[in-house]
């Protein structure tokens, strides 16, 4: 259920509205193309997990195959991804809450949501899993329910907002690429953001009772989830309403229900979207807590982030991430209108870096296996190493297209040297401690080959 929930979030429930408005039905094609590469990433992650399950996730794989510098980079870029996307999702929670209480200041529900999710994550991993299960169940049931409802509308030819329904809506309004190819390329970054979270399958592996049995099933299910939930829902939406009817800032599912004269149903869907945002905040606190502990035990993060509670919760890392999320609450206080977009743009860098490191780690595993230094598990990424190279090229393209994605995208590109400078400065601050800890384990910090620190099984 965590695997299913990880692939369905605000990127689909809310973000699809603006992308449909900008690119039309081409969104389904972009979801399909990006979905192929997302599956390559998660399949590569699956092979790494089958090689050695670890709650340190790909940070411990970066450490083993590429060395401590790579582990440091991977961990802190992963933290950047979840920290900034968490700010975006805390902001989303605040915006959705205003649907029910429009006079409430935006920062208040953001703060309440953060406290509730933080409390859940600090109690136990079991409670996190239980809450995430129900979050995922709500999202899946809502999406499946809407799709069944939409299919019934298509089969009965029931008009929506005065328009006939069916494939003719697509062809009568410019076809698959009504706005051209360029707008479709420009939404690539947003689509990749929508898929962020699928790697949670690997992060949870170290705390799964039988990862070598469970993980392959979860990973393989990514393909059909993408096909049904993303591509299928977008095709359904453009056959129910012309693509010009959708707009930024409103869930496309809410748009359809509102056009049918069902405002109450729209309110229920807004509640579902609120659940999706809470789910993302929940996952962010869980995953970054484990990643920061892995970094701290190697010397790359503050010592307190390695602290564990008696219930096995890395509360130091969870609290550090919550502190960053609290900055999002402040951002909602001083810049309520811009908070979401600012956080969203910077989270994209973390996502692209994180996926790239997973693919590079798998490439290193493949090369070692070819040299006879280790044995690849029977569960493998098809087409390696060529699929690795093509996926890395795709991710570079996505990052490059950010420059053409409005002012926010250019700010992101211009901000990359600053992010790089902070990472380099941070490495010089921690490298002494990293080398000392590595020496205590009998392995040099600069040399690949240090085993993961949270290996299980």
Structure description:
Mean pLDDT is 84; it is low at 444-457. This protein has helices at residues 2-6, 10-13, 15-23, 26-51, 57-66, 68-97, 107-123, 125-156, 168-171, 181-186, 188-195, 200-203, 211-240, 252-259, 263-297, 315-334, 339-370, 386-401, 406-440. The radius of gyration is 22 Å and the shape is globular. By secondary structure, the protein is mostly helical. α7 crosses α8. The chain crosses the membrane at residues 29-49, 70-88, 108-129, 136-156, 176-201, 222-244, 264-287, 313-334, 346-365, 386-405, 411-430. It holds the Pfam family AA_permease. This is Amino acid permease. It is found in: Cell membrane.
Q: Secondary-structure map with pairings?
A:
Elements: H1 2-6, H2 10-13, H3 15-23, H4 26-51, H5 57-66, H6 68-97, H7 107-123, H8 125-156, H9 168-171, H10 181-186, H11 188-195, H12 200-203, H13 211-240, H14 252-259, H15 263-297, H16 315-334, H17 339-370, H18 386-401, H19 406-440
Helix pairs in contact: 4-11, 4-13, 4-17, 5-6, 5-17, 6-7, 6-15, 6-16, 6-17, 7-8, 7-15, 7-16, 8-13, 8-15, 11-17, 14-15, 15-16, 17-18, 17-19
